[in-house]
């Protein structure tokens, strides 16, 4: 299994290296779909230039990275850019994580089969080792060869770095190392607030791994929860303090987190925020910012309750929701949750509109640059054209995620109630949500 | 109905009657006030002015000799070595700038024998009060310690246009800030005096400009200013809340000058660290007390002239104030600027006491060809539809200078004057309006300029010149190019470049390049303050050495921001203005450039080619920029809010559905309504009922 992965890595790195040396390397970093004010490489360089001039990088409104992360970037070897390394790291971490997760899934399925918990007609839903064998490789391939990831990497967006941290967090969680998991989760939160919502699935998974039931009366549950929370908050504190001591000022708090939460920069991107807040009436602005930001965090608790037995799927859902509803999304964020799609291969038969959604996603991806050109360069279209495409793109993403969620729930339902359901009169029944 | 109409008529009649009564009363009131004022003005100063005028006349010659000595002592600026390069540059610049250019004194004696006589002009201390009587702490004994000077400089430009520069200088020996409250104003405008004392202003400089000064065609103006409105103020160091004072001050000034100075806020105010030093007394270097703002979009027109005129002691009644007809022609002029400079300056050369100085200048460039019907001839009457008949009686000096010798002047004047302005030695014909002989028999002065040759000679190229433009296409990014020309054949000199760029053009300082003669030219000093969105602009100050005879190009990339729809101007597709960048420099003089001087001067004075005027301070403003930003569609905020919320609701709805509902086997025999609903639901892609 290691050989195909190595081959894949070599291919991916070669593609990126070739693109880095092509003329596209100047064009791609300017694309608004690929870089946002939060993660543009140009802004990192600007922040370091400001530091050279003796000005705090947070004195202006250009640099929005947390500082200790970007400084090593500057001293990196120019032949292999850190974004390539980050991509490779993400792919390997995802590969290992999914491999381990598949093992767990398979083991659970075996126990369930042995305990004869599955209805008899569900045999065709049972996953076989053969089909599961290539899933980790497919996940790595989906990440590394996804055009979105490649674009994001060639643009040197620091989004790849965020993805690597989240992938490492998933790996550590799956491996059951609660300390490392907490540290990486804190790191991801520290970079951009949103991964905070991954705290719940990580906790659920670790509890599950330790066979601690989620029970409010059990002291072991509370013990572990406090322990994990403490590790998480502690490492977050250490990182924030580290940033403070590096520049001896708290400016970065407003410049990074304030910037993410209050959305002052309305540069167009693929998200829902920019045009909405450009056209917003001033006195409703605060209200709608609160509504839109709460929207990202809002789904965590109901999803955790619904999916408490399936924390990895919950992680997937959370990452997808973050990348749809975050304030400055880029295609790199989408690439991360799309990498998980091969892991849900077995849900394919329950997906309702995967064809429509994938066609819409493809069409939108092609239309982004076209309409951008028409608006910004040709002047023959206006902002509404680009905005319409972002709307459609987001609708497609929402449908994709909810479709996978539906399919997952439906499969679970079938696994307990049987695949071929009958009505009372013996005729074939259709399953509906009620 | 008829009764109703009758009532209305009655009402109108009564109203008219009332209005008449009020207006009448008002007019009488003002008349009373005017009388009282004129009496007050008349009684006190008359004797004084007469005396001072006479004394200036008689003592002119002896004084000249005295002054000469003083000037020689003074004009060597202290070259104290300073750590900060920029500071050093500015200290010297300031010294040169704050004093009037030393006029050719050495010529006075010899020229007196000739028929035309050279005049010793611009003697700084005109009133002859002994120094011993004046100490800064004692309030002035006599109230009339202020004086007023006026002058008009007419300079034919090489493009064939006429440059007219009116200057009015009011000096007042008082202290607004210390001691008792000043309430009696004579010549100094009260409105401005009150503002200065209320806000503890040390120096105030305002200029309003319409049109652009074409430096390459017209040469250097006497007082450069950027297009639009410019305001810079030094506050006293006793001011604690400088930002608050600045905000109030701009609002007050906006009212006084009928200009939109109230649009100055934190987004266009900067605190330059080196480019703007006080021109008057006080060697303040703490930029916390300095505020600088430019409104490049400000449109200057005749309504700004009325408040300007009000600040003059003589108003528009007399003297050089033929300009008020000139003002009518503002629309047809090519460039037009108004400025006010107020600062505290030394009262005499020993700086034992200080006076407040207000300089009001009006510079106009007239297109000769539009009014002269192609003839190269120009006269006061033709241009202003009026001749000069008398000087302002309150003015201690009132003169008209005509620049150059390439034309015939009629009537001729016996007075000549030489001055070195901006490194260029020029000869001026002087008309002294306080002298009745100037007006001749007709009791009016109508100057007539007739060009001698068709060719107007070669113009002195400005040694320092700046240009600026935006490069790039599309509405996403762009690049600002600033070109600085050093036309001096063999001298390099440093310049300070000040750039203020609004926040919505996000500058990237790492893309800054400075190249001259194809090579990288590293600035020796950079002060950069990045912008904050909706709070403050970018500020970039650089000290760059310009190699001789070269063009230095400064480029910087920027990104155009998308603004909120309420932040756009009413005509967003017109573009957004970016204020001029300011180039300040100590430029080597042209006078020092000609080493083989043919003019007669003492041999001992020319051992070294370097002269007292070897360099002079100059400020150059580049063009303002007009930059387009991407715009949202202003017509559809409701649509955008509805559509985006719909998408969020789709996300919320589908997740909510899946979270709250459970799978169940379908009920048999759905009703018609249910079937229809199912069709719709199938289309929507949501689970069936």
TrEMBL record, chain A:
<feature type="transmembrane region" description="Helical">
    <location>
        <begin position="232"/>
        <end position="250"/>
    </location>
</feature>
<dbReference type="GO" id="GO:0042765">
    <property type="term" value="C:GPI-anchor transamidase complex"/>
</dbReference>
<dbReference type="GO" id="GO:0016255">
    <property type="term" value="P:attachment of GPI anchor to protein"/>
</dbReference>
<dbReference type="InterPro" id="IPR009600">
    <property type="entry name" value="PIG-U"/>
</dbReference>
<feature type="transmembrane region" description="Helical">
    <location>
        <begin position="350"/>
        <end position="372"/>
    </location>
</feature>
<keyword id="KW-0256">Endoplasmic reticulum</keyword>
<feature type="transmembrane region" description="Helical">
    <location>
        <begin position="166"/>
        <end position="187"/>
    </location>
</feature>
<keyword id="KW-0732">Signal</keyword>
<feature type="transmembrane region" description="Helical">
    <location>
        <begin position="256"/>
        <end position="277"/>
    </location>
</feature>
<keyword id="KW-0472">Membrane</keyword>
<dbReference type="GO" id="GO:0006506">
    <property type="term" value="P:GPI anchor biosynthetic process"/>
</dbReference>
<feature type="transmembrane region" description="Helical">
    <location>
        <begin position="284"/>
        <end position="305"/>
    </location>
</feature>
<protein>
    <recommendedName>
        <fullName>Phosphatidylinositol glycan anchor biosynthesis class U protein</fullName>
    </recommendedName>
</protein>
<feature type="transmembrane region" description="Helical">
    <location>
        <begin position="384"/>
        <end position="406"/>
    </location>
</feature>
<keyword id="KW-1133">Transmembrane helix</keyword>
<comment type="similarity">
    <text>Belongs to the PIGU family.</text>
</comment>
<dbReference type="Pfam" id="PF06728">
    <property type="entry name" value="PIG-U"/>
</dbReference>
<keyword id="KW-0337">GPI-anchor biosynthesis</keyword>
<feature type="transmembrane region" description="Helical">
    <location>
        <begin position="133"/>
        <end position="154"/>
    </location>
</feature>
<comment type="pathway">
    <text>Glycolipid biosynthesis; glycosylphosphatidylinositol-anchor biosynthesis.</text>
</comment>
<feature type="transmembrane region" description="Helical">
    <location>
        <begin position="193"/>
        <end position="212"/>
    </location>
</feature>
<feature type="signal peptide">
    <location>
        <begin position="1"/>
        <end position="25"/>
    </location>
</feature>
UniProtKB/TrEMBL annotation, chain B:
<protein>
    <recommendedName>
        <fullName>GPI transamidase component PIG-T</fullName>
    </recommendedName>
</protein>
<dbReference type="GO" id="GO:0042765">
    <property type="term" value="C:GPI-anchor transamidase complex"/>
</dbReference>
<feature type="compositionally biased region" description="Basic and acidic residues">
    <location>
        <begin position="56"/>
        <end position="72"/>
    </location>
</feature>
<dbReference type="InterPro" id="IPR007245">
    <property type="entry name" value="PIG-T"/>
</dbReference>
<dbReference type="GO" id="GO:0016255">
    <property type="term" value="P:attachment of GPI anchor to protein"/>
</dbReference>
<feature type="signal peptide">
    <location>
        <begin position="1"/>
        <end position="25"/>
    </location>
</feature>
<feature type="compositionally biased region" description="Basic and acidic residues">
    <location>
        <begin position="82"/>
        <end position="91"/>
    </location>
</feature>
<keyword id="KW-0732">Signal</keyword>
<feature type="region of interest" description="Disordered">
    <location>
        <begin position="52"/>
        <end position="143"/>
    </location>
</feature>
<feature type="compositionally biased region" description="Basic and acidic residues">
    <location>
        <begin position="114"/>
        <end position="130"/>
    </location>
</feature>
<dbReference type="Pfam" id="PF04113">
    <property type="entry name" value="Gpi16"/>
</dbReference>
């Amino acid at each position: 299994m290691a050989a195909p992965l190595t081959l894949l890595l070599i291919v991916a790195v070669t593609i990126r290296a070739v693109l880095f040396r092509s003329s596209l390397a100047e064009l791609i970093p300017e694309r608004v779909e690929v870089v946002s004010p939060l993660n543009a490489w140009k802004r990192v360089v600007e922040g370091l230039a400001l530091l050279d001039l003796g000005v705090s990088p947070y004195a202006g409104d250009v640099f929005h990275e947390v500082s200790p992360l970007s400084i090593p970037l500057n001293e990196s070897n120019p032949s292999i850019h850190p974004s390539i390394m980050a991509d490779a790291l993400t792919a390997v971490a995802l590969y290992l994580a999914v491999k381990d997760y598949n093992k767990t899934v398979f083991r659970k399925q075996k126990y369930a089969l042995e305990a004869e918990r599955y209805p008899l007609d569900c045999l065709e839903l049972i996953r076989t080792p053969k089909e599961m064998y290539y899933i980790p490789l497919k996940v790595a391939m989906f990440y590394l060869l996804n055009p979105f990831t490649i674009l994001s990497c060639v643009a040197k967006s620091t989004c790849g770095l965020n993805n690597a941290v989240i992938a490492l967090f998933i790996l550590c969680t799956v491996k059951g190392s609660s300390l490392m998991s907490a540290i990486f989760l804190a790191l991801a939160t520290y970079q951009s607030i949103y991964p905070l919502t991954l705290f719940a699935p990580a906790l659920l998974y670790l509890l599950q791994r330790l066979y601690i039931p989620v029970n409010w009366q059990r002291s072991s549950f509370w013990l572990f929860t406090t322990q994990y929370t403490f590790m998480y908050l502690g490492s977050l504190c250490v990182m924030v303090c580290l940033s403070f001591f590096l520049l001896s000022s708290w400016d970065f708090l407003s410049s990074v987190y304030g910037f993410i939460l209050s959305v002052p920069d309305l540069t167009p991107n693929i998200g829902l925020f920019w045009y909405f807040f450009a056209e917003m009436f001033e006195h409703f602005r605060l209200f709608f910012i609160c509504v839109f930001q709460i929207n990202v965090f809002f789904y965590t608790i109901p999803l955790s309750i619904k999916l408490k037995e399936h924390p990895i799927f919950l992680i997937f859902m959370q990452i997808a929701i973050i990348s749809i509803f975050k304030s400055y999304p880029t295609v790199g964020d989408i690439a991360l949750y799309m990498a998980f799609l091969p892991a849900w291969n077995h849900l394919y038969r329950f997906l309702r509109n995967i064809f429509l959604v994938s066609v819409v996603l493809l069409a939108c991806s092609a239309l982004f640059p076209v309409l951008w050109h028409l608006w910004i360069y040709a002047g023959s279209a206006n902002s509404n054209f680009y905005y319409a495409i972002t709307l459609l793109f987001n609708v497609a993403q929402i449908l994709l995620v909810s479709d996978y969620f539906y399919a997952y729930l439906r499969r679970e339902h079938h696994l307990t109630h049987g695949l071929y359901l009958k009505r009372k009169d013996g005729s074939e029944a259709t399953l509906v949500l009620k | 109905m008829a009764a109703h109409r009758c009532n209305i008529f009655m009402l109108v009649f009564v109203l008219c009657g009332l209005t008449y009564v009020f207006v009448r009363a008002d007019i009488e009131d003002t008349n009373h006030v005017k009388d009282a004022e004129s009496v007050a003005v008349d009684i006190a100063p008359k004797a004084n002015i007469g005396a001072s005028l006479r004394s200036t006349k008689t003592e002119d010659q002896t004084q000249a000799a005295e002054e000469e000595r003083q000037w020689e002592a003074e004009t060597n600026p202290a070259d104290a070595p300073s750590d900060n390069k920029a500071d050093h540059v500015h200290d010297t610049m300031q010294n040169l700038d704050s004093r009037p250019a030393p006029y050719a004194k050495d010529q006075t004696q010899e020229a007196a024998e000739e028929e035309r006589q050279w005049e010793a002009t611009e003697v700084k201390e005109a009133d002859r009060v002994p120094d011993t009587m004046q100490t800064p702490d004692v309030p002035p004994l006599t109230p009339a310690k202020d004086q007023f000077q006026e002058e008009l400089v007419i300079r034919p430009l090489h493009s064939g246009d006429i440059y007219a520069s009116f200057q009015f200088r009011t000096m007042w020996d008082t202290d607004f800030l210390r001691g008792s409250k000043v309430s009696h104003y004579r010549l100094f405008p009260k409105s401005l005096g009150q503002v200065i004392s209320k806000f503890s202003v040390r120096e105030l400089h305002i200029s309003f400009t319409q049109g652009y000064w074409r430096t390459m065609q017209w040469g250097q103006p006497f007082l450069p200013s950027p297009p639009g409105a410019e305001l810079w103020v030094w506050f006293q160091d006793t001011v604690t809340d400088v930002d608050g004072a600045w905000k109030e001050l701009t609002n007050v000034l906006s009212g006084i000058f009928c200009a939109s100075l109230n649009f100055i806020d934190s987004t266009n105010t900067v605190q330059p660290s080196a480019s703007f030093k006080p021109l008057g007394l006080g060697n303040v270097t703490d930029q916390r007390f300095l505020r600088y703002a430019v409104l490049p979009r400000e449109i200057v027109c005749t309504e700004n002239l009325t408040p300007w005129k009000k600040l003059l002691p003589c108003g528009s009644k007399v003297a050089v104030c033929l300009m008020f007809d000139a003002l009518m022609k503002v629309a047809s002029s090519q460039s037009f600027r108004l400025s006010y400079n107020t600062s505290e300056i030394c009262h005499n050369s020993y700086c034992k006491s200080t006076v407040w100085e207000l300089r009001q200048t009006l510079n106009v460039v007239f297109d000769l060809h539009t009014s002269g019907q192609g003839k190269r001839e120009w006269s006061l009457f033709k241009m202003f539809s009026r001749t000069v008949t008398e000087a302002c009686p309150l003015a201690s000096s009132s003169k008209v200078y005509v620049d150059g010798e390439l034309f015939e002047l009629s009537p001729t004047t016996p007075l000549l004057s030489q001055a070195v302005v901006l490194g260029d030695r020029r000869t001026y014909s002087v008309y002294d309006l306080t002298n009745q002989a100037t007006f001749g028999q007709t009791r009016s002065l109508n100057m007539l300029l007739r060009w001698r040759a068709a060719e107007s000679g070669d113009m002195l190229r400005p040694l320092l010149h700046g240009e600026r433009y935006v490069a790039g296409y599309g509405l996403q990014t762009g690049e600002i190019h600033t070109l600085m020309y050093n036309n001096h054949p063999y001298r390099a000199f440093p310049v300070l470049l000040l750039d203020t760029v609004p926040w919505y053009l996000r500058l990237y300082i790492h893309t800054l390049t400075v190249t001259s003669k194809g090579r990288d030219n590293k600035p020796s000093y950079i002060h950069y303050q990045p912008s904050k969105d909706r709070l403050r602009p970018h500020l970039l100050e650089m000290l760059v050495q310009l190699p001789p005879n070269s063009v230095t190009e400064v480029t910087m990339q920027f990104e155009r921001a998308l603004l909120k729809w309420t932040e756009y101007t009413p005509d967003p597709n017109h573009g957004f203005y970016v204020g001029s960048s300011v180039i300040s420099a100590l430029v080597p003089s042209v006078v020092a450039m000609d080493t083989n001087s043919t003019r007669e001067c003492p041999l001992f004075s020319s051992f070294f080619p370097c002269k007292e005027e070897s360099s002079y301070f100059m400020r150059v403003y580049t063009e303002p920029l007009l930059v387009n930003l991407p715009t949202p569609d202003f017509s559809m905020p409701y649509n955008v809010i509805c559509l985006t919320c719909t998408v969020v609701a789709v996300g919320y709805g589908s997740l909510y559905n899946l979270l709250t509902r459970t799978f169940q086997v379908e009920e048999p025999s759905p009703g018609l309504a249910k079937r229809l609903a199912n069709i719709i639901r199938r289309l929507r892609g949501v689970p069936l009922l």
